[in-house]
Amino acid sequence: MHQRANSIPPRSNHVGIGICVAITDAVDFWICDSIRNQKYSDCRAGFRSQQFESDLYRSTVCHQSVSSRAVVYAVVLWVFPSLLSAIAMVREKEKGTILQVYTSSLSATELILGKTLAYLMVGLAVTLVVMGSGSLIFQVGFAGDPTPLLIGTPIYLTAAVLFGVLLGIRSGNQNAAVQGVSLIGFLTAFLLSGFIYPLSNIPFPLSLVPNIVPARYFIVITRDAFVRGIGWTGIWFDMVMLILLGLLLFNIARRLLSQMQLPD
What is the mean pLDDT of residues 52-67? Predict the structure, then answer.
């Protein structure tokens, strides 16, 4: 009886295996660090097969750890450029300098393109800092061809800036612009992009919203660049969707700004 009791693994080990397999993308890298630094030897005590233990640890926990660290870029790079461009647009309205644009020969398209280009440069600088520091701190490198990420990042930043410009056009003050970015931009990028919850777990009709969330498609691009390494064959659709959503945001912002301008 004593030998039979010893042959049964402790219950906590089974729970540990279940956590390793079923853990979500949002928190698994914290557990991965904890296991790797302190408790990995305790977690593997209940594993009967060393090969199973090694494969499970590498293929689930550490793989998802890199994936989680990579997809954080999508949320950060969506919030900051859109917030800066929205505040800048509203400040011109509050100071009255936007009236000079309304009465000038400058078209809405030219104004939006100028604003977008300026804050796109700011967004690219933020991207270098965020991705550079993330790669150094978390030791995350490219898994394959980085070209899709290098092309998709400016497109994604352009969509983020256009989203901020759109909110800036519709907002009456800076507080409203900040709240708009927080409620619409941050929450959708954080909750409805696949960053926290799998998209398959989002109930209908809320599951339709992620189709127009650019962060959803940029997450796929970052995962491919840092984890999967498939290349263009795996992310071409997401790249096309980013371009289409960027054009949609530009067209909406242009029409709203054109309505505010004085006719020629």
Answer: 44
